[in-house]
Amino acid sequence: MKIKFVFVPPGGGEADYSLEFELPSVPQPGDYISINEKGQKGTSDFIVRRSWWILNSGGEGIGTTDTVGVECEFAIGHYSSDSHKKVCSSYKDVKEFEATAF
User: Fold this and answer.
1) How confident is the model at residue 102 (pLDDT cuts 50, 70, 90)?
2) Which of 6, 18, 29, 71 has the greatest number of beta carbons closer than 10 A?
3) Which DSSP symbol is given to 30?
4) 4-8 long-range CB contacts below 8 Å, 24 or more apart?
5) What is the tens place of the pLDDT at every residue in 28-65?
6) pLDDT the model gives residue 4
7) Can you give the residue ranges of every domain in the chain?
8) Among the listed residues 29, 45, 48, the one whose alpha carbon sits nearest the alpha carbon of residue 37
9) What does the pLDDT average to over 83-101?
């Protein structure tokens, strides 16, 4: 399933940027998202806020899914890259991933 991630400041607001990924399911609010970017040491980290479903009416028949958008807030993760931390420093109230034991 193609998912369009939309990255917003903590608390919401205007999107900074978006990326599309193929995923087996839709991330849920509160999920942690870490993206390994080619050539970057560390990750870009986010927490899922909500999902948006854009549907096309089927008229007389069955409708289809146009886009599934997942809105994510910038966050600091365990392995956040220096460049990601720099971006996060420009925001107030950036959340950090909780320590977990997989």
Assistant:
1) low
2) 71
3) T
4) 4/67, 4/68, 4/69, 4/70, 5/33, 5/46, 5/69, 5/70, 5/72, 6/69, 6/70, 6/71, 6/72, 7/46, 7/72, 7/73, 7/74, 8/49, 8/71, 8/72, 8/73, 8/74
5) 999 999 999 899 999 999 999 999 999 999 788 899 99
6) 97
7) 2-96
8) 45
9) 91
Give the domain 2-96 fold.
Answer: Ubiquitin-like (UB roll) (3.10.20)
What value does the mean pLDDT of the chain take? Answer: 93
Tokens of 25: 């399911």
Residue type, 93: D
| Residue 87 identity (one-letter amino acid) | V
